[in-house]
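Forwarding these from the shared drive since the link keeps breaking.
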Amino acid sequence: MSVRKLKPITPGQRFRVVNSFDTITTDKPERALLAPKKRSGGRNSQGKMTMRYTGGGHKQKYRIIDFKRTKHGIPATVKTIEYDPNRSAFISLLAYVDGEKTYVIAPNGLQVGQTVVSGPDAIPEIGNTLLLSKIPLGTVISCIELRPGQGAVIARSAGTFAQLMARDGKYATIKMPSGETRLILLTCSATIGAVSNSDHQLIVSGKAGRSRWLGRRPRTRPVAMNPVDHPMGGGEGRSSGGHPRSRKGIPAKGYRTRSKVNPSSKYIVERRKK
């Protein structure tokens, strides 16, 4: 995994840093695992804009990802490592011995030709999916379930990982990518290894046009608005805008919005650092 800095042949390339995609093995996705992806352009059924700063962008197709890994005990061979326009991580095409093919989130270090397997009897190697009760303590994991059978919801983006810290009773103690430590049931599953494309955070767009390719329209700064449009708008000249807050008036930067009566709070051992 590496990035490339382009020569400044054009103004848009002067600060551009791109992914070298040296781990990608093909640019042709599996057709049977593609689904149409409809764009609204930020408009509702009447054609009126209801979401600002949304619209345009390159046409995309969704890749159907197997987040549950329920084919237990059936070995699968890694056929490709592919780019997915819908997520920051790379994906991998698995071909099972029974003929079925699925996409999964590719962990860092997964190689084409490698055999992976899921289930309670799998060994803790890169790409294998096991129950938290079967994973050795201290192991780096990703694609973690929050409820048994739900499918992976935690640590799915590029370069993220969690760590299995301890086991006590029917719960495992997991250190999350955010730094939060929480309890998760031992009957939930996780994949061994960190998520691929860890250099994603080093990428620099280089020009505004790339945001348009991704479907993002220009965003107006709140301090440039009028008081009627935003709490931070108005003022004579270039005013700072006052306390940072959202369009609805909810404070940002330090204001806690989590409900005090959230039932899952009892599973959080240590909150993330502010």
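-- next protein --
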Amino acid sequence: MKILKFLLILLFFSFSLNSLAQNQSEIRAYYGISSNSFGNNQDLIGAASYDPETAYELGMRYILRMQNGLGLEGGVGFWTGDIEITSAPMPEQTSRRERLQITSIPVLLNYRFLEFFFLNGGPVLDFQNSDNSFDSQSGIGISAGIGLNHYIRNFVMFVNPNFRYYALIPFEKENHHSKLSGFAIQFGMGYRF
């Protein structure tokens, strides 16, 4: 509930800034797929291995355009994927799957250049929504990407390949903290007003 209140306040603040600045803004919806991996604990002897399978994400973004192609990009995204967990062979090796779900709130800088291209990157606040046997991915992560826009009047279609690193600064610190990272590609549509 606190997340919902925060998002509503952020959205209200963004619209207020837009009405004062009289700059063009965009609202976008996207669907993405990603290929991920866990770091840090993979080299520990006797530790379980974690193998993320292809994950999916849905989200909304709001971009407040400023001068010289710059913009502030915020919103909310929902990431979900299955993780295959393989135990150490003691005495026998077992394998099982767990579903990982993360809600993300990005605060990115967006730079549009050469009419069709854009760069975006910055911090992302992540909240793990599922209970899992591995380290929590809740924390402050980062995202960086490059994308392609195509405008038809006020409508936009875009593709945005990007790199994500979750829990760069985790909310719960663990010894040998396993952190999720990966490459994603987002496809979406939006409206410029």
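The beta strands are 25-38, 49-52, 55-65, 70-86, 95-113, 117-128, 139-152, 155-170, 180-192. The radius of gyration is 19 Å.

- D.
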